[in-house]
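Ticket #4471: complex job returned nothing on first submit. Input attached below:
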Amino acid sequence: MTQRPGERFDAIIIGAGVIGAAVAYELTRRGWRTLSLDRGPAAGFGSTSASSAIVRFTYSTPTGVAASWEGMHYWRDWPSYLGVDDELGFARFVRCGMVSLIARPEGHHERVIPIWDDFDIPYEFWDADTLRERLPYVDVGVFGPASRPDRPDFWNEPQGVHVGALYSPDAGYVDDPQLAAHNLQRAAESNGGVFRFRSEVVAFATETVDGGRRVTGVRLADGTEIEAGVVVNVAGPHSAHVNQLAGVFDSMNIKTTPLRHETYHVPGPPDVDYSAVGMNVADDDNGIYFRPQTGNHLLVGTTDPPCDVQEVVGPDDDLGELSADGWETNTLRINKRIPSLGVPLPHEKKGVVDRYDRSDDWIPIYDRTDLDGFYVAIGTSGNQFKNAGVAGHLMAELIEAVEGGHDHDAAPLQLTARFTGLPLDLGTFSRNREINTASSMTVHG
Ligand SMILES: Cc1cc2nc3c(=O)[nH]c(=O)nc-3n(C[C@H](O)[C@H](O)[C@H](O)COP(=O)(O)OP(=O)(O)OC[C@H]3O[C@@H](n4cnc5c(N)ncnc54)[C@H](O)[C@@H]3O)c2cc1C
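Support reply: We reran it on our side without changes. The output follows.
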């Protein structure tokens, strides 16, 4: 084993995706000497690179809504937040608005609206006529519950029309998620943060302190050993593997699992330039969401409806190509909602295959662990890109508080969000919570 002389940092961050890089930046803002290690070739090459990067606020818990609303404020003036130039330019927040279709009077919107009212988050409730007027290319028929083309009910005529929609003008998407991670890397580096790529953490060093175990550093695949008082697991779909290496996997009540996931790129409708005037749309009735994509394209994702198989995979499994079944199913689904699209042909199959680091209840774990000095920002479940800034902030606050002696397990940290002043109850993200049944257990990006 080799050790470079003087290789000691205040904190090592495993992973330089958008959340790992945000944790690094927030710690360096507080004067920490950080080392970010990533087994990949550059920042944002993990699941961040495949992100639909939708920014929306339709969460079902107060902390979920508060974090996402706060998260948008980071993107809104991204260069000011970073405070540094990036030779590659900046990721751009496109504020296109979001429409959550409401098929029936009872549903997810009933949870969301009272929280938005409490937090003064702007929205409009559209009835079916307004929906038709605002999105004339959308068929307002109710087709669901979501089905698959190999089932007869998929082809049924619509059963009535949507009640309406919830419109959120401040939602949008970030046009280049990988660049966003690079931006954060440059911001952390400007404060002295160090990034090393093609550097895989394969083991942990620990010591016994006052009868408990404490992390003291990591070992890399090439044998290099590096010391640090704090280590943070932000390894995305490798999070469970890294927790196993650190010996904390079994002690956490909520587990994380890599889930294979596909998104699709389809040509926009011929009668409208969707990339210029389109909005994000959550279409639970069809089990999909979609958003504008440059060049009059739409990016289509699935909400993993119960009729679809959720594919649990290993963190290093070959994910194969975009599946013919997924392409056909989801282009037919979006064609029901926007009939003028025309169903794209099989040879036009375009999209992205990657994996979510899904937690048991689709809510992330931002927490300490039973190994002192070892922290986790994991289980981001296909919906935490939007929260990168706020996740970095809350992890840095949590680490400083716990390292300063705060018993976060006994008294979960309560934070005031930086931009919006909203309350953030960090107990929501505990590794030891019971499965949160208020979670929608799904995503709309
Ligand atoms: C298809 C898809 C669509 C999504 N859409 C949205 C969306 O619309 N809106 C939204 O908010 N969120 C979305 N998400 C979720 C969001 O992209 C993720 O939550 C976020 O990118 C996770 O960032 P991260 O930094 O935690 O992980 P990652 O980007 O996965 O980074 C983890 C890094 O850790 C490194 N690593 C792993 N193990 C080791 C090791 N042992 N040693 C060193 N390095 C290691 C990897 O190389 C990787 O670079 C989506 C995700 C996917 C996959």
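Residues 275 and 292 are 5 Å apart (CA to CA). Closing as resolved unless it happens again.
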